[in-house]
Amino acid sequence: MNRILKIIFFGTPEFATGVLEKLHHSQHEVVAVVTAVDKPAGRGRKINESHVKKYALAQNIPVLQPPNLKAPEFLEELKSYGADLQVIVAFRMLPKVVWNMPELGTFNLHASLLPEYRGAAPINWAIINRETQTGVTTFFIDDKIDTGAIIDQLNCPIDKDENVGSLYGKLMLLGSELSLKTVNDIAAGIISTKKQPHSSTLKEAPKLNSSNTTIKWNNKVEHIDALVRGLYPYPVAKAVLIQEQPETIKIYKTAIEIKKHTMQPGSIIIEDDTIKVAGLNGFIQIIELQLPNKKRMEAKSLLNGFKFHDNARFDKG
Known about the structure:
By secondary structure, the protein is an alpha/beta fold.
Protein backbone atom coordinates (compact mmCIF):
# COMPACT_ATOMS: atom_id res chain seq x y z
CA MET A 1 0.00 0.00 0.00
CA ASN A 2 1.29 3.47 -0.92
CA ARG A 3 2.45 5.68 1.93
CA ILE A 4 1.62 9.36 2.07
CA LEU A 5 5.07 10.91 2.31
CA LYS A 6 6.19 14.06 4.05
CA ILE A 7 8.48 15.88 1.62
CA ILE A 8 10.93 18.75 1.94
CA PHE A 9 11.50 20.43 -1.43
CA PHE A 10 14.70 22.26 -2.43
CA GLY A 11 14.69 24.54 -5.48
CA THR A 12 14.94 28.10 -6.76
CA PRO A 13 13.90 28.90 -10.40
CA GLU A 14 10.64 28.56 -12.31
CA PHE A 15 11.70 25.11 -13.54
CA ALA A 16 11.65 23.90 -9.93
CA THR A 17 8.29 25.56 -9.25
CA GLY A 18 6.61 23.35 -11.85
CA VAL A 19 7.72 20.28 -9.91
CA LEU A 20 6.81 21.78 -6.54
CA GLU A 21 3.31 22.57 -7.77
CA LYS A 22 2.82 19.00 -9.01
CA LEU A 23 3.94 17.54 -5.68
CA HIS A 24 1.90 20.05 -3.66
CA HIS A 25 -1.28 18.99 -5.45
CA SER A 26 -0.57 15.26 -5.04
CA GLN A 27 -1.60 13.02 -2.14
CA HIS A 28 1.78 13.66 -0.54
CA GLU A 29 2.54 16.55 1.81
CA VAL A 30 5.20 19.16 1.08
CA VAL A 31 6.00 20.17 4.66
CA ALA A 32 8.66 22.80 3.86
CA VAL A 33 10.57 24.42 1.01
CA VAL A 34 14.26 25.34 1.02
CA THR A 35 15.27 28.03 -1.47
CA ALA A 36 17.93 30.65 -2.19
CA VAL A 37 18.42 33.68 0.02
CA ASP A 38 16.71 36.85 -1.31
CA LYS A 39 19.07 39.01 -3.36
CA PRO A 40 18.94 42.56 -4.72
CA ALA A 41 18.50 42.61 -8.51
CA GLY A 42 18.13 45.10 -11.35
CA ARG A 43 19.07 48.76 -11.50
CA GLY A 44 16.96 49.65 -8.47
CA ARG A 45 18.56 46.81 -6.45
CA LYS A 46 15.08 45.72 -5.42
CA ILE A 47 15.07 42.60 -3.25
CA ASN A 48 14.26 39.64 -5.46
CA GLU A 49 12.55 36.52 -4.09
CA SER A 50 12.99 33.20 -5.87
CA HIS A 51 10.19 31.83 -8.04
CA VAL A 52 9.91 28.85 -5.70
CA LYS A 53 9.61 31.08 -2.63
CA LYS A 54 6.79 33.13 -4.17
CA TYR A 55 4.83 29.97 -4.97
CA ALA A 56 5.44 28.41 -1.55
CA LEU A 57 4.31 31.52 0.33
CA ALA A 58 1.17 31.75 -1.81
CA GLN A 59 0.38 28.13 -0.82
CA ASN A 60 1.22 28.67 2.88
CA ILE A 61 4.16 26.26 2.74
CA PRO A 62 6.92 27.10 5.26
CA VAL A 63 10.03 28.54 3.55
CA LEU A 64 13.64 28.14 4.74
CA GLN A 65 16.43 30.27 3.25
CA PRO A 66 19.70 29.22 4.91
CA PRO A 67 22.88 31.10 3.94
CA ASN A 68 24.80 28.11 5.30
CA LEU A 69 23.49 24.59 4.69
CA LYS A 70 25.69 23.20 7.48
CA ALA A 71 24.57 25.68 10.15
CA PRO A 72 23.38 23.78 13.28
CA GLU A 73 20.21 25.90 13.59
CA PHE A 74 19.24 25.10 9.98
CA LEU A 75 19.91 21.39 10.44
CA GLU A 76 17.78 21.35 13.60
CA GLU A 77 14.91 23.11 11.84
CA LEU A 78 15.15 20.78 8.86
CA LYS A 79 15.07 17.74 11.14
CA SER A 80 12.05 19.11 13.03
CA TYR A 81 9.79 18.61 9.99
CA GLY A 82 10.30 14.83 10.13
CA ALA A 83 10.41 14.47 6.33
CA ASP A 84 10.40 10.98 4.82
CA LEU A 85 11.96 12.19 1.56
CA GLN A 86 13.70 15.24 0.10
CA VAL A 87 13.32 16.35 -3.54
CA ILE A 88 15.88 18.63 -5.20
CA VAL A 89 15.38 20.61 -8.42
CA ALA A 90 17.86 23.26 -9.62
CA PHE A 91 19.47 23.93 -6.26
CA ARG A 92 23.07 24.12 -5.07
CA MET A 93 25.12 21.14 -3.93
CA LEU A 94 23.99 19.72 -0.59
CA PRO A 95 26.28 18.53 2.22
CA LYS A 96 25.94 14.88 3.19
CA VAL A 97 24.44 15.80 6.56
CA VAL A 98 21.47 17.25 4.64
CA TRP A 99 20.96 14.72 1.84
CA ASN A 100 21.45 11.78 4.17
CA MET A 101 18.86 13.00 6.68
CA PRO A 102 15.50 11.52 5.54
CA GLU A 103 14.66 7.84 5.96
CA LEU A 104 13.90 7.37 2.24
CA GLY A 105 16.79 9.49 0.97
CA THR A 106 17.06 12.55 -1.27
CA PHE A 107 16.58 12.55 -5.02
CA ASN A 108 17.35 15.16 -7.65
CA LEU A 109 15.61 15.93 -10.93
CA HIS A 110 18.11 16.76 -13.69
CA ALA A 111 17.17 18.10 -17.15
CA SER A 112 19.15 15.64 -19.25
CA LEU A 113 19.42 11.93 -19.88
CA LEU A 114 22.19 11.21 -17.40
CA PRO A 115 25.03 10.36 -17.48
CA GLU A 116 25.17 12.78 -20.44
CA TYR A 117 25.17 16.52 -19.70
CA ARG A 118 26.03 16.57 -16.03
CA GLY A 119 26.40 20.15 -14.88
CA ALA A 120 24.72 23.52 -14.53
CA ALA A 121 23.28 24.13 -18.01
CA PRO A 122 22.03 20.86 -19.57
CA ILE A 123 19.15 22.38 -21.55
CA ASN A 124 21.41 24.98 -23.16
CA TRP A 125 24.16 22.55 -24.09
CA ALA A 126 21.81 19.96 -25.60
CA ILE A 127 20.67 22.60 -28.11
CA ILE A 128 24.13 24.14 -28.61
CA ASN A 129 25.48 20.66 -29.45
CA ARG A 130 22.58 20.04 -31.88
CA GLU A 131 21.22 16.96 -30.11
CA THR A 132 18.01 15.48 -31.47
CA GLN A 133 16.76 14.32 -28.09
CA THR A 134 17.19 14.94 -24.41
CA GLY A 135 15.03 14.22 -21.38
CA VAL A 136 14.81 14.26 -17.60
CA THR A 137 16.35 12.00 -14.97
CA THR A 138 15.67 11.37 -11.30
CA PHE A 139 18.58 10.05 -9.26
CA PHE A 140 19.58 9.67 -5.63
CA ILE A 141 22.03 12.31 -4.41
CA ASP A 142 25.56 11.28 -3.54
CA ASP A 143 28.69 13.27 -2.66
CA LYS A 144 29.49 14.34 -6.24
CA ILE A 145 27.56 16.44 -8.79
CA ASP A 146 24.91 14.57 -10.85
CA THR A 147 26.58 11.17 -10.40
CA GLY A 148 24.17 9.29 -8.11
CA ALA A 149 22.21 6.13 -8.89
CA ILE A 150 19.56 6.69 -11.57
CA ILE A 151 15.97 5.99 -10.53
CA ASP A 152 14.00 6.81 -13.69
CA GLN A 153 14.11 8.75 -16.98
CA LEU A 154 11.78 10.18 -19.62
CA ASN A 155 12.85 11.12 -23.17
CA CYS A 156 12.02 14.34 -25.04
CA PRO A 157 12.70 15.05 -28.74
CA ILE A 158 14.46 18.31 -29.63
CA ASP A 159 12.85 20.01 -32.63
CA LYS A 160 14.96 21.37 -35.49
CA ASP A 161 14.49 25.05 -34.56
CA GLU A 162 14.15 24.50 -30.80
CA ASN A 163 15.41 27.18 -28.42
CA VAL A 164 16.00 27.08 -24.68
CA GLY A 165 12.67 28.77 -23.93
CA SER A 166 10.58 26.18 -25.77
CA LEU A 167 12.57 23.17 -24.55
CA TYR A 168 12.57 24.50 -20.98
CA GLY A 169 8.77 24.45 -20.97
CA LYS A 170 8.59 20.89 -22.31
CA LEU A 171 11.14 19.57 -19.82
CA MET A 172 9.48 21.34 -16.89
CA LEU A 173 6.22 19.49 -17.62
CA LEU A 174 8.03 16.20 -18.20
CA GLY A 175 10.11 16.70 -15.06
CA SER A 176 6.99 17.35 -12.99
CA GLU A 177 5.46 14.08 -14.19
CA LEU A 178 8.65 12.10 -13.59
CA SER A 179 9.21 13.58 -10.12
CA LEU A 180 5.70 12.63 -8.96
CA LYS A 181 6.07 9.15 -10.47
CA THR A 182 9.38 8.76 -8.64
CA VAL A 183 7.84 9.88 -5.33
CA ASN A 184 4.93 7.46 -5.83
CA ASP A 185 7.30 4.60 -6.68
CA ILE A 186 9.44 5.31 -3.63
CA ALA A 187 6.27 5.41 -1.47
CA ALA A 188 5.18 2.06 -2.92
CA GLY A 189 8.64 0.54 -2.47
CA ILE A 190 8.91 -0.44 -6.14
CA ILE A 191 11.95 1.48 -7.36
CA SER A 192 15.10 -0.06 -8.77
CA THR A 193 18.22 2.00 -9.39
CA LYS A 194 21.00 1.90 -11.97
CA LYS A 195 24.57 2.97 -11.29
CA GLN A 196 25.87 5.68 -13.59
CA PRO A 197 28.89 4.87 -15.77
CA HIS A 198 31.96 7.10 -15.50
CA SER A 199 33.71 7.94 -18.76
CA SER A 200 35.88 10.75 -20.12
CA THR A 201 33.83 10.71 -23.36
CA LEU A 202 30.58 11.84 -21.72
CA LYS A 203 29.26 15.26 -22.79
CA GLU A 204 29.13 17.84 -20.03
CA ALA A 205 26.99 20.91 -19.33
CA PRO A 206 29.33 23.45 -17.73
CA LYS A 207 28.23 26.79 -16.36
CA LEU A 208 27.69 29.45 -19.03
CA ASN A 209 30.20 32.31 -19.06
CA SER A 210 31.30 35.20 -21.28
CA SER A 211 33.67 32.95 -23.23
CA ASN A 212 31.34 30.06 -24.12
CA THR A 213 28.40 32.37 -24.93
CA THR A 214 30.38 34.53 -27.41
CA ILE A 215 30.00 33.61 -31.09
CA LYS A 216 33.09 32.36 -32.89
CA TRP A 217 32.41 33.16 -36.56
CA ASN A 218 35.22 30.88 -37.73
CA ASN A 219 32.71 28.04 -37.54
CA LYS A 220 29.96 26.40 -39.59
CA VAL A 221 26.74 28.41 -39.71
CA GLU A 222 24.68 25.50 -38.33
CA HIS A 223 26.78 25.57 -35.17
CA ILE A 224 26.55 29.35 -34.83
CA ASP A 225 22.77 29.24 -35.17
CA ALA A 226 22.59 26.41 -32.61
CA LEU A 227 24.58 28.54 -30.15
CA VAL A 228 22.14 31.44 -30.61
CA ARG A 229 19.12 29.17 -30.05
CA GLY A 230 20.85 27.45 -27.13
CA LEU A 231 21.19 30.81 -25.36
CA TYR A 232 17.73 32.24 -26.15
CA PRO A 233 15.94 33.76 -24.30
CA TYR A 234 18.62 33.59 -21.61
CA PRO A 235 21.49 34.46 -21.26
CA VAL A 236 21.60 35.46 -25.00
CA ALA A 237 24.51 34.99 -27.43
CA LYS A 238 27.14 37.71 -27.64
CA ALA A 239 29.34 38.82 -30.54
CA VAL A 240 32.25 41.25 -30.67
CA LEU A 241 31.67 43.97 -33.29
CA ILE A 242 34.83 45.75 -34.43
CA GLN A 243 34.38 49.30 -35.74
CA GLU A 244 36.27 52.22 -34.18
CA GLN A 245 36.75 49.99 -31.17
CA PRO A 246 35.48 46.52 -30.18
CA GLU A 247 32.05 46.43 -28.55
CA THR A 248 29.93 43.48 -27.47
CA ILE A 249 26.43 43.15 -28.91
CA LYS A 250 23.64 40.69 -28.13
CA ILE A 251 22.19 38.47 -30.85
CA TYR A 252 18.73 37.04 -30.16
CA LYS A 253 17.57 35.37 -33.37
CA THR A 254 19.28 34.21 -36.54
CA ALA A 255 18.69 32.26 -39.75
CA ILE A 256 21.21 30.33 -41.80
CA GLU A 257 22.15 30.40 -45.48
CA ILE A 258 24.55 27.65 -46.57
CA LYS A 259 26.52 29.00 -49.51
CA LYS A 260 30.11 28.82 -50.77
CA HIS A 261 32.02 32.10 -50.53
CA THR A 262 35.54 33.46 -50.22
CA MET A 263 34.92 36.03 -47.48
CA GLN A 264 36.67 36.07 -44.12
CA PRO A 265 34.51 34.71 -41.27
CA GLY A 266 32.97 37.66 -39.42
CA SER A 267 32.65 39.82 -42.56
CA ILE A 268 29.40 41.81 -42.68
CA ILE A 269 27.09 42.23 -45.67
CA ILE A 270 24.25 44.77 -45.56
CA GLU A 271 21.71 44.26 -48.35
CA ASP A 272 17.94 44.51 -48.78
CA ASP A 273 17.49 45.67 -45.16
CA THR A 274 19.24 42.56 -43.84
CA ILE A 275 22.45 41.98 -41.91
CA LYS A 276 24.43 38.91 -42.91
CA VAL A 277 27.67 37.68 -41.36
CA ALA A 278 30.04 35.21 -43.01
CA GLY A 279 30.69 31.86 -41.39
CA LEU A 280 32.80 29.02 -42.75
CA ASN A 281 30.20 27.49 -45.05
CA GLY A 282 27.67 30.28 -45.58
CA PHE A 283 26.05 33.23 -43.89
CA ILE A 284 24.19 33.96 -40.68
CA GLN A 285 21.33 36.39 -41.08
CA ILE A 286 20.89 38.38 -37.88
CA ILE A 287 17.15 38.81 -37.33
CA GLU A 288 17.11 40.42 -33.86
CA LEU A 289 19.97 42.12 -32.04
CA GLN A 290 20.86 44.73 -29.44
CA LEU A 291 23.70 47.23 -29.66
CA PRO A 292 25.26 48.67 -26.49
CA ASN A 293 23.02 51.28 -24.86
CA LYS A 294 20.24 50.64 -27.37
CA LYS A 295 17.06 48.58 -27.13
CA ARG A 296 16.56 45.17 -28.67
CA MET A 297 15.21 45.43 -32.21
CA GLU A 298 14.83 43.69 -35.54
CA ALA A 299 17.70 44.18 -37.99
CA LYS A 300 15.48 46.02 -40.48
CA SER A 301 14.44 48.57 -37.84
CA LEU A 302 18.03 49.05 -36.70
CA LEU A 303 19.20 49.77 -40.25
CA ASN A 304 16.66 52.58 -40.55
CA GLY A 305 18.71 54.72 -38.19
CA PHE A 306 22.11 53.04 -37.81
CA LYS A 307 24.96 52.68 -40.27
CA PHE A 308 27.81 50.23 -39.89
CA HIS A 309 31.26 51.58 -40.73
CA ASP A 310 32.61 50.51 -44.14
CA ASN A 311 35.30 48.39 -42.50
CA ALA A 312 33.06 46.99 -39.73
CA ARG A 313 33.39 43.27 -39.02
CA PHE A 314 32.83 40.77 -36.25
CA ASP A 315 35.75 39.24 -34.40
CA LYS A 316 35.94 35.74 -35.84
CA GLY A 317 37.14 34.31 -32.51
